[in-house]
Design a protein that fits this description.
It is a single chain. The protein has 289 residues and is α+β, with helices and mostly antiparallel strands. It is 33% helix and 18% strand. A 6-stranded mixed beta sheet has the order 4-5-6-7-8-9, sandwiched between helices. Strands 1-3-2 form a 3-stranded antiparallel beta sheet. Strand 6, helix 6 and strand 7 form a beta-alpha-beta unit.
């Protein structure tokens, strides 16, 4: 076989040398599967042109995902549905960023013997409407289960809420009505961790308020090891935390952290409403007149 002399370096060919893509992925894994582009490029010691060429190759192949933040971020797509994570944690502190990395590599959680998350959606749907009208003061409100939509118009589980509620707030003195879109992430008693808060955080760019509901299945909240950590993370990022000992009874709900209103783009919120059922959209049109 005739060797291409131009491919040699210093007169020899290093057949054992790993490819650029292999090196890129190896160093990214050493960073926990998530890194800012300037940081990763520094670890690799590559010039910008080489770095971005390999980056583009891996992105086109679907091996990595892009995220925002200073200099941009890159995520190893080890779990398909987690590809949206960089889009929503650009402003996390170093401590919270490490938490997010830990969440990415969590093993599947054993649900045997517990009420499954999917079994909570229907009883929660009606109680969420009551929650928003009775406790949060919305004049009108409707709720829809969205967890079963697959990947349609969502981009992955990190940006897809389990339930979405749309309502209208009417003020006593101000003449205008205010539409609100609330997203809800649901976690069963076998999955009480900060992952729920991080997933709810992914919704904030497309909702006015984002919440996570933890079903404790009758257990005291303080018995869960990550209870305090969950509350602290939620407070820092404006995520509402609701603890429900019983999913189908609002009297058994305790709002530990109140969701703060986000600065979501109205166009994005409007598109989310447009993805809901025709019945709910028709009601929203009437409510907002």
């Amino acid at each position: 076989m005739k060797l291409n002399i131009s491919s040699r370096r210093r007169g020899c060919i290093d057949l054992a040398r790993p490819s650029n893509t292999t090196v890129f992925l190896r160093v990214l894994k050493e960073q926990g599967g998530y890194a800012a582009n300037p940081t990763l490029r520094g670890c690799l010691g590559w010039p910008e042109e080489k770095y971005w060429s390999v980056h583009q190759e891996l992105y086109d192949a679907g091996v990595i995902a892009r995220g925002r933040g200073r200099g941009g971020t890159v995520l190893l797509k080890t779990l398909e549905d987690e590809a949206d994570l960089p889009e929503i944690i650009e402003n996390l502190s170093d401590e919270d960023m490490q938490t997010a990395k830990e969440v990415l590599v969590e093993d599947d959680i054993e649900s045997e013997g517990h009420v499954k998350e999917s079994e909570l959606y229907t009883p929660l749907e009606a109680e969420i409407v009551k929650f928003l009208k009775l406790r949060k003061g919305l004049r009108e409100c409707g709720c829809q289960i969205t967890a079963s939509q697959g990947r349609r118009d969502t981009g992955g589980s990190w940006s897809r809420p389990d339930l979405i509620a749309v309502g209208v707030r009417v003020y006593e003195y101000l003449p205008s009505k205010s539409a609100e879109l609330h997203t809800f992430e649901v976690k069963a008693s076998y999955d009480v961790s900060v992952k729920g808060v991080l997933e709810a955080l992914a919704h904030r760019e497309s909702a006015t308020h984002s919440h996570v509901i933890y079903h404790t299945d009758g257990r005291d909240w303080e018995q869960f090891p990550e209870a305090r950590r969950i509350e602290q993370l939620a407070v820092r990022h404006g995520i509402g935390v609701i603890v429900a000992t019983s999913a189908g009874n609002l009297d058994d709900w305790d709002e530990l952290v109140t969701a703060s209103r986000s600065n979501a783009d109205p166009d994005i919120v409007d598109r989310v409403i447009g993805s809901l059922s025709e019945n709910l959209k028709s009601k929203v049109r009437i409510w907002t007149r």
